[in-house]
């Protein structure tokens, strides 16, 4: 009797272990056009002990077969019959019943909202809402997961599909276009899904877990620039890590031959509300100071957009540029401009070409006024956010300009 109990206990432990291992399966790439789904094991090696069904639009007739072996980190490819091209939901289940949210492991919704089991998944935090959805991938592309969260922003159209294998680390490089005395960096020459690091001289500093901080090319519904002419793609800055980490990226260093006033301009749109307090997402200008240090910039907060002076820029100060109301301001593109005038020792900023706001500056004696760079900073406890960014531009300006006239 004791022997039978020991065998039963051992079998239960094995079963529980396999169940826990099944929970490490993730849908990582989807090809609706070819009915192909990539599933990756993010845990230890294991072999499935039963069929693990897929669900899309209440269709449960495709599965990961019993006896499928997964090595650690292995991506395997499966056929999901009749996967809808323009819009559907897609989930992996541990088992039936399919109306039990506890049986859902991972998935997404794309192309449209409120399909199939999306509401069920969103109720337990496996999706961001019954009505939210990721973009549908055009033919010849796939929809890929960034490896971290469970929102529509964690999925992106990938123009370099890698179904059944890990995504490539090397995408080649694209020449930078920002240099003294002027230039603009748009993202039209990149492939959708490329990381910002593809662009020469645009390094990323990422101290978060894989996928928690990414900056990559996207083109989707939230980012459609209805008033922005020919722009068709942009960068998504996705920082899902609330820890005190060093998440940021830089543009190329601008080295002026002599002291020169300058202007930076770019477009930005928040896709998630900024933090209510603490550390805030900031588009900042850094001047060389041994290394590089923050000087002044534009900061997104829950109550509005601010011009700030920080670090080596002089006495810390801030001024509200425009009030914000969320969720109304989500996905709203703003054309932001930041002007520096060393003749009057002022920094000013505008939104959509409106009236400027200004603050005094006093660059630290150790800082070089003729060497600087554009930087997005997202580090700090509690700082999480998702932004779109496009058309980053720079122009050196002379002393006798309208920017100087604004402060006299």
List keywords for this structure.
single chain; 408 residues; mainly beta; Jelly Rolls; 2 domains; eight-stranded antiparallel β-sheet; 27 strands; disordered N terminus; disordered C terminus
In short:
With 408 residues, the protein is mainly beta.
Task: Characterise the protein shown here.
- The protein is mainly beta and 408 residues long.
- The protein folds into 2 domains: 157 residues, no CATH class; 224 residues, Jelly Rolls, CATH 2.60.120.200.
- Strands 12, 14, 15, 18, 23, 24, 25 and 27 form an 8-stranded antiparallel sheet that branches. Strands 13, 16, 17, 19, 20, 21, 22 and 26 form an 8-stranded antiparallel sheet that branches.
- The radius of gyration is 25 Å and the shape is elongated.
- The N terminus and C terminus are likely disordered.
Biggest β-sheet strands, sense, barrel: 8 strands, antiparallel
Global shape: elongated
Poorly predicted sequence stretches spanning 5 or more consecutive residues = 1-17, 399-408
Summing up helix and strand content along with how strands pair, one would put the structural category as: mainly beta
Q: Termini, distance in Å?
A: 95 Å
- Tally the helices: what do you get? 3
Secondary-structure blueprint of this entry?
Elements lengths: L1 H21 L2 E7 L4 E6 L4 E2 L4 E4 L7 E2 L4 E2 L4 E5 L8 E6 L10 E7 L7 H5 L19 E4 L9 E4 L23 E4 L18 E2 L7 E6 L15 E6 L8 E3 L3 E2 L5 E10 L11 E8 L1 E11 L2 E6 L7 E7 L10 E8 L4 E6 L5 E4 L10 E7 L7 E13 L4 H4 L3
Antiparallel strand pairs: 1-2, 1-10, 2-7, 3-6, 4-5, 4-8, 8-9, 10-11, 12-27, 13-16, 14-15, 15-27, 16-26, 17-26, 18-23, 18-27, 19-20, 19-26, 20-21, 21-22, 23-24, 24-25
């Amino acid at each position: 009797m004791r022997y039978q109990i020991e065998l039963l206990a051992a079998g239960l432990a094995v079963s529980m272990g396999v169940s826990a291992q099944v929970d490490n399966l993730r849908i990582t790439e989807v090809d609706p056009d070819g009915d192909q789904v990539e599933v990756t094991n993010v845990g230890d090696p294991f072999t499935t002990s039963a069929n693990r069904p897929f669900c899309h639009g209440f269709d449960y007739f495709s599965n990961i077969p019993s006896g499928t072996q997964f090595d650690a980190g292995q991506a395997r490819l499966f056929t999901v019959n009749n996967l809808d091209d323009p819009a559907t939901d897609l989930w992996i289940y541990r088992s039936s019943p399919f109306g039990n949210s506890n049986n859902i492991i991972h998935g997404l919704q794309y192309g449209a909202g409120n399909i199939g089991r999306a509401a069920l998944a969103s109720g337990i935090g496996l999706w961001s809402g019954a009505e939210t959805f990721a973009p549908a991938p055009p033919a010849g592309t796939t929809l890929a997961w960034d490896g971290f969260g469970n929102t529509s922003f964690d999925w992106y159209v990938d123009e370099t599909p890698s179904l059944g294998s890990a995504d490539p680390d090397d995408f080649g490089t694209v020449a930078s276009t920002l240099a003294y005395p002027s230039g603009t960096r748009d993202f039209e020459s990149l492939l959708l899904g490329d990381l910002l690091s593809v662009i020469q001289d645009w390094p990323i500093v990422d101290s978060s877990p894989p996928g928690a901080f990414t900056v990559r090319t996207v083109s989707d519904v939230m980012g459609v620039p209805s008033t922005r002419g020919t722009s068709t793609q942009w960068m998504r800055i996705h920082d899902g890590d609330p820890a005190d980490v060093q998440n940021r990226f830089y543009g190329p260093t601008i080295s002026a031959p002599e002291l020169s006033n300058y202007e930076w301009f770019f477009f930005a749109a928040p896709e998630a509300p900024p933090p209510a307090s603490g550390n805030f997402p900031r588009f900042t200008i850094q001047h060389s100071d041994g290394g590089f240090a923050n000087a002044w910039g534009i900061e997104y907060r829950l109550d509005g957009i601010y011009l700030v002076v920080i670090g080596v820029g002089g006495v810390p100060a801030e001024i509200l540029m425009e009030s914000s109301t969320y969720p109304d301001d989500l996905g709203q593109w703003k054309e932001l401009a930041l002007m520096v005038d060393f003749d009057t020792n002022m920094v000013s900023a505008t939104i959509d070409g409106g009236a400027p706001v200004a603050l005094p500056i006093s660059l630290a004696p150790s800082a070089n006024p003729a060497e600087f760079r554009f930087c997005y900073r997202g580090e700090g406890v509690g700082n999480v956010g998702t932004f779109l960014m496009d058309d980053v531009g720079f122009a050196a300006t002379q002393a006798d300009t309208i920017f100087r006239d604004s402060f006299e």
